[in-house]
C-alpha cells in the first residue's frame, strides 16, 4: 500500500511538472559525426551572433554583419568550422574581427576576437 501511494505521488508530480524545452537556439545542436554544410553552420552562427547582440555581449552593429569567410581548420579536437566576421563600424580596432568556432557537425564551440 505504501509503495502504491509513493508511486502515485511520483507519477502525479511528473505529469504536472513543466516539460523542459530547448531555447530558441536549440535547433543548432547536432548529434553524430556527419559534417554540417557551410550554409547550416553560417545560419547557426547568425543565430548565435544575434543572441550575443541581444545579451549585450556584442554591439548592435554586429546584427547585420554576414560572415566574410567560412572555412574548416584544424582545432584542438580535430577539424572544426571557423567563421570570420568583420565590422568596421566598431571603434576598437582589436574588436573589429569576430571569430566563431563550430564543431564539424555544427555545434557551437566558442566566439572571440583573437581567432585562437
Number of domains: 1
Strand content: 15-25%
Low-confidence stretches: 11-25
Please state the average pLDDT score: 82
- The helix content is 25-40%
What does the radius of gyration come to? 20 Å
Strand order of the largest sheet: 1-2-3-4
Order of helices and strands: HHEEEE
What is this entry, summarized?
This protein is an alpha+beta fold. The protein is built from 2 helices and 4 strands. The longest helix is centred in the middle third of the chain and has 17 residues.
Secondary-structure blueprint:
Layout: H1 2-16, H2 38-54, E1 69-75, E2 78-86, E3 97-103, E4 108-112
Antiparallel strand pairs: 1-2, 2-3, 3-4
Structural account:
The protein has 116 residues and is of the alpha+beta class. It has one domain. The chain has 2 helices and 4 strands, in the order ααββββ. The protein has helices at residues 2-16, 38-54; strands at 69-75, 78-86, 97-103, 108-112. Strands 1-2-3-4 form a 4-stranded antiparallel beta sheet, covered by helices on one side. A hairpin with a 4-residue loop joins β3 and β4 (108-112). The chain is globular. The termini are far apart. The model is unreliable at 11-25 (pLDDT under 50).
Amino acid at each position: 500500500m505504501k509503495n502504491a501511494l509513493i508511486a502515485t505521488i511520483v507519477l502525479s508530480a511528473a505529469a504536472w511538472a513543466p516539460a523542459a524545452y530547448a531555447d530558441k537556439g536549440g535547433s543548432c545542436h547536432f548529434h553524430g559525426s556527419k559534417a554540417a554544410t557551410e550554409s547550416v553552420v553560417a545560419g547557426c552562427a547568425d543565430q548565435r551572433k544575434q543572441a550575443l547582440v541581444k545579451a549585450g555581449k556584442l554591439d548592435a552593429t554586429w546584427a547585420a554583419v554576414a560572415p566574410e569567410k567560412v572555412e574548416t581548420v584544424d582545432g584542438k579536437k580535430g577539424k572544426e568550422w571557423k567563421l570570420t566576421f568583420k565590422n568596421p563600424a566598431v571603434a576598437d580596432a582589436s574588436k573589429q574581427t569576430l571569430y566563431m568556432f563550430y564543431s564539424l557537425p555544427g555545434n557551437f564551440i566558442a566566439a572571440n576576437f583573437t581567432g585562437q
